[in-house]
Design brief:
The protein has 6 helices and 7 strands. Helix 1 links the parallel strand 2 and strand 3. The two termini are 22 Å apart. The C terminus is likely disordered.
Length: 212
Amino acid sequence: MKVLNLYAGIGGNRKLWEGVEVTAVEMEPSIAKVYSDNFPGDELIIGDAHQYLIDHADEFDFVWSSPPCQTHSRMMKATRHKQKRYTDMSLYQEIIYLQHFFKGDWVVENVKPFYEPLIKPTATIGRHYFWSNFRISKYEAPVQPKGFITAGTVAATEILKKWLDIHFEGNIYYKGNHCPGQVLRNCVHPLTGKHVMNCAMNTPNHQTLFRA
């Protein structure tokens, strides 16, 4: 099965997938380097995942997309965030596009937002919402380490690396973010990623929720 892994990050969701051929798309070179080191057998594209989806989706059997969560996150309304910005609607653009124009199976993942989601998610696992065209069964997400949301020290990032079982030297900072734990918190835990992928592969005849 040919899988397109969009906004691949450092590959938390992908870590435990088996028997698939993966093309990953990640914009940030420092993050893409970690992904490449951990998954050297995957094809890695450094570029715009949102554009890559519309240009190349039909080349794949399965799409996993994890658009940036920062403008949807409940932390957007926390007092320490003073920057005003619009919520990124590319999340819903991709859901609608995949619902109506993609012929394979797909899942879009994001964190639970600070607002009522504009499209009802298919499943909720831990702090994540999932939209998909296959049924995702109930699953208990791995328990997050203590202080997960605020983890910003070097010691705390090492705990997150161990929790995810994804390892790299030093810390990653990107787009002016001064928290070394952000790239790790952005990950879907590998066990959750494996569960979702297994649900897709075990759907009888790949019968979907959105397609007739």
